[in-house]
Fold this protein.
Amino acid sequence: MNIGKQVKTLRIAKGVTQEELAEYLGVSFQAVSKWENEASTPDIALLPNIAVFFGITIDELFHIPNETEFERIENMFWHERRINSETFNHCIRFLENVLQDEPKNIRAYRCLAYLYNHRAKSDHETASEYAKKVLEINPKEKLGLVAFLEANNGVCGDEWYDNHFKVIAYFKEFLKINPDNILGLDGIIKNLLDDERYDEAIPYIKRLHTTVKNYKYEIYMGDVLFGKGRHEEAVNYWNEAVTHYPETWQAYYCRADRYKKLGRYKEALDDYEKCFVIQKSPRTTDGLHSMAQLHEILEDYAAAIGDRERIIKCLQDEYNTVSGEGINSQKREIVRLKGFLSE
């Protein structure tokens, strides 16, 4: 590890400034700043005095507490676009060691899942760029198209491959053990509906409605009717979800998604806006992401840029996030959208 990170953690925990630490050690505060920013490391001769200042041993100076390491890993999920192999492997070793001592540590298992998903996402981004190069060189290259679709979770056209058979099978077994689990019911319903297995979904929708009274019953029953081609009845159900739960932002968001499928873009945009406005801080930016995509579909690139800028402002104001991938990804989108304006 870089000892500068540990110095910063200990200094903040002790409530002292860089200047105070620097004065004790007989160095400049700029030197301490460079350690903490990983621009340099302390001279080895300073380590005993650093340990004395913080009241720890030199060995402890090189040990990161589990809580600090967990926080560091979790921050990577949201703030890093890429995690290099060395850091990734270090995180895996740390989490596996935790599980050796605590085999039921949920946080460690969750971090492992998120780490591998993060790497899969970044690998798919890289794969997508290579696949696009294939198609640029030879637009008829089918294997390049397949690679692009797989990298971007696109529909490949083979029903056995595109469906959610394994996910549904898992949730069926999960719900035998946890019959009233809301997450499990929600998971199996969404995947059954996406696979157009509407009649199979209905008993789970009814069970969810018995377990918890909220907007989802009307939304999902509307989805069943929509899938069966009964669009007017479906819209009535979706409208009832909002009528019955007018203060629930998720009801507006769900109806907006469905309006979008019907090509009712103005109504969808109104619902996305409503779902963002009525939330309490800190608000989710899901509605703004959907608005940005819909404005881009409508070729209103200025509005799409405005949506992306609102996402950045929300992250800054309500999550105190001023840097990292969450912000950077929106800035990249803004640059891309500005390219359309200049054409």
Notes: The two ends are 48 Å apart (CA to CA). Residues 267 and 304 are 17 Å apart (CA to CA). The chain has a mean pLDDT of 94.
